[in-house]
Amino acid sequence: MKLLLGIKKIGVVLFCLLALLVSCKKQVKKETVEVVETSRVEYLPYYSDESFTPYWITPDSEEEKSFHKIPDFQLLNQLGDTVSQTTFDDKIYIADFFFTTCPGICLKMTGNMEKVQEAFKDDPEVLLLSHSVTPSVDSVPVLKNYAEKNGVKDNKWHLVTGDKTEIYNLGRIQYFVENDMGVPKDINDFLHTENFLLIDKNKHIRGIYNGLNRASIAQLITDIKALKLE
Predict the structure, then answer these.
(1) How many helices (H) and strands (E) does the chain have?
(2) CA distances from 225 to 8, 14, 30, 201 (A)
């Protein structure tokens, strides 16, 4: 009888220890989730130079209004229509730089940009803008043919050509896509970059992403959704 009571007592103790262990695990799990949820940033950062140092500015503040913006431009898309900053009024857009005869990274970049297009295909607030860095080759008909081959939706995704100096100045001086700090370049130096830029409705740069990296593209899609909520 004593032996039986001893076994029962041991069983009760083990049960209590097990219950306490499970409770502790649940508590730790709950606390971890809470930390993750409260660690999210309230707003996406802003960028203003080639170092891509993040600036944490409150939207609609006086500081935000005077912060670096992408200036106006005049280019032609695959339909032969003029594309300017007016095209992107009250729009979020993603910008990149490519050329249709690129044998290397451009096709993968185009494929990843198509994934972004697919994610927001029914969202009129989100547009895409791809600048040709060989505008003398990439005429309107060439861009149209490239668009048809690569699933580009007209008026959703603009492939643009135009003055080479204007495009290169936009890329290097305004979007800062070539992150070669301290290395001066001119119109004779070829512009080639895998970077995607996220631009908000006020023409501010809000993110930079590797257009060849799947995880980076997933982050871009997440950040677009976050930007829409600001």
Answers:
(1) 6, 7
(2) 58, 49, 26, 13
pLDDT of residue 180: 62
Q: What is the pLDDT of residue 13?
A: 40
Contact (Cβ atoms closer than 8 angstroms) between residue 57 and residue 41: no
In this prediction, residue 64 carries a pLDDT of 94
Tokens of 181: 């700090």
CA distance 106 to 110: 6
User: Residue ranges of the alpha helices (H) in the chain?
Assistant: 2-38, 62-65, 106-119, 140-149, 164-169, 214-228
Backbone angles phi, psi at 128, to 5 degrees: -125, 145
- Ranges of residues in the chain whose predicted pLDDT is under 50: 1-40
Please state, in angstroms and rounded to a whole number, the distance separating the CA atoms of residues 87 and 182: 33
d(CA 214, CA 111): 11
Distances, alpha carbon 120 to alpha carbons 147, 151, 177, 202, 228, in Å = 17, 14, 23, 19, 12
Strand, coil or helix: 161: strand
90/125 Cα distance (integer angstroms): 7
Q: Which of 171, 214, 144, 139 is nearest to 71 (CA)?
A: 171
**143 contacts 114 by C-beta, under 8 angstroms:** no
| Three-state SS at 204 | coil
Say whether domain 62-228 belongs to CATH 3.40.50.1820: no
